Amino acid sequence: MFNLEEKPKEPIVSDDFLKDILSKRIKSTDTIKQNEFIMKIGNTNKFSKGDISGWIGLAKSKKTFALTMFVSALVGCLRLFDVFNANKECKVLYVDTEQSPADVQRVTKRIQKMSGAEDNLFMYGLRPYSAKERVEAIVLLLKEHKDIDVLIIDGVRDLVMSVNNDVECTEVINLLMKWSFEYEIHIATVLHQNKGDGNARGHLGTELYNKSQSIIRITKDENDSSVSTVEEVIGRGKGFEKFSFRVNDNGLPEVCELALNSINVDKAPWE
């Protein structure tokens, strides 16, 4: 039986932890480093260091192709189609959790063709590991590649046993926030949508929506299955105009000219 009159015990807090908490006070007079945005979509700054984004879509909506353009612009410091406009040259750690080594290499080759190099790209396939081992692997890779600017997790669902386990999913999202802050990087994650309601899957998707700087949705065109549309469905600050892309005869993604309206299309670097 519980004694209702008994006061709950206060948690024991170490002096070091207390000092760390007190150091997090933010005053109006403090000099604080402002958000460092790594890219503009069109003319709109998006994706800052110390934050996370979610890239969502149904299966086969070409989410990885959209990320290919994103990463290619970053590692090559390019203006791709005047849509993916890198603010600086970035080093990218790209972790794929579900594809075979051959498929991961195809993505690597696409990025190399579009960017012209891959010195700034560190691509890893973690399909053989368990969910817990994948988290541990990412921890080790972050320590190994200390000077990266961006972490891509293509398949964040594979870092948990169940997308509906509240505790497990919250812990993983908290890890992403911690990594983005401690390593001062942007973390872009990929997660499937539900077929029924269009939401990102499970409690993991809910947490990703709540904690992300931006949620980017990739949707296959209803009238032309070769075309997919990219739009920001949730985001802090000014949003960007949605645009469409298709995969060309060389197997590389390119923004559709008609979808850009008045935006000029730069010649692709591989042409």
Automatic annotation (TrEMBL):
Gene3D superfamilies: P-loop containing nucleotide triphosphate hydrolases
Family annotation (InterPro entries): P-loop_NTPase
Name of the protein described by the UniProt record: AAA family ATPase
Annotated organism of origin: Polaribacter haliotis
